[in-house]
Structure to design on (271 residues):
């Protein structure tokens, strides 16, 4: 393909064709006559000029002029291609998924990617942090959605899975009050009437209890809470007494009998 051209020209051609990413393997195949040291030197020079960024070993993103000030592409524009490169199943979740579903958020400080175990180390390039959250029970496709981006598509959690994840992984986003603030923005897109057994296979019962209690008593959406409650009964969730907040004393706490939640913390939603 190079036909005597330079690696810089090859990268420019990729960009002109709408591809803002490439792998070391692709470069090596396109320039099979060059030694690996020569290829690495050329890529290093382009990296020094902020024309490209190595966001993972053997995987690069191209930085168009419109993103020169930031020095890197937003992760949503390359995460699908990166995960294909490293052969890991994933979906964009938590605050980033909530933003896709209409939650009015400030730009999240981290980009949350849910993966199947084993975990990956968080990635920080040019002040853009990708947070990997590993889960053992990975959701089936009916709990995920494909959304179009400027460079292709990205997988995100459905509204119902996003709601559950916000509670299950509340520590990763700043606590239950933050989770409830975001949930309150999602109630218009939430509907538990059509959830199937797959939802209860990947969301633990404790999370179901906490989510239901919070929807009913904090977010004040009893209809949504009852939808979830009826499905939990249908799929035989075995509610046990659990604290609303782990790691906090339950002494003198009140028990919510419906959800069997021990109310041991106060939740404040930001207006």
């Amino acid at each position: 393909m190079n036909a005597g051209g330079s690696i810089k020209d090859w990268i420019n051609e990729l960009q002109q064709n709408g591809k803002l990413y490439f792998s070391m393997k692709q470069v090596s195949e396109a320039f099979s006559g060059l030694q690996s040291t020569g290829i690495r030197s050329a890529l290093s020079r382009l990296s020094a000029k902020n024309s490209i960024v190595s966001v993972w070993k053997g995987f690069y993103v191209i930085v168009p002029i419109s993103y020169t000030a930031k020095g890197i592409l937003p992760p949503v524009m390359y995460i699908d291609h990166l995960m294909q490169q490293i052969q890991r199943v994933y979906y964009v979740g938590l605050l980033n998924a909530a933003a896709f579903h209409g939650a009015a958020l400030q730009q999240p400080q981290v980009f949350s990617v849910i993966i199947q175990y084993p975990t990956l180390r968080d990635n920080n390039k040019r002040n853009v942090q990708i947070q990997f959250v590993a889960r053992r029970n990975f959701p089936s496709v009916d709990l995920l959605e494909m959304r179009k981006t400027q460079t292709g598509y990205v997988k995100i959690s459905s509204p119902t899975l996003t709601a559950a994840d916000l509670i299950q992984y509340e520590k990763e986003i700043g606590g239950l009050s933050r989770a409830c603030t975001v949930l309150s923005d999602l109630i218009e897109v939430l509907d538990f009437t059509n959830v199937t057994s797959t939802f209860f296979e990947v969301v633990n019962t404790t999370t179901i209890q906490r989510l239901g209690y919070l929807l009913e008593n904090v977010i004040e959406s009893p209809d949504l809470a009852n939808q979830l409650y009826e499905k939990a009964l249908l799929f035989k969730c075995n509610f046990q007494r659990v604290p609303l907040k782990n790691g906090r004393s339950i002494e003198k706490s009140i028990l919510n009998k419906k959800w069997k939640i021990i109310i041991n913390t106060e939740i404040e939603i930001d207006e």
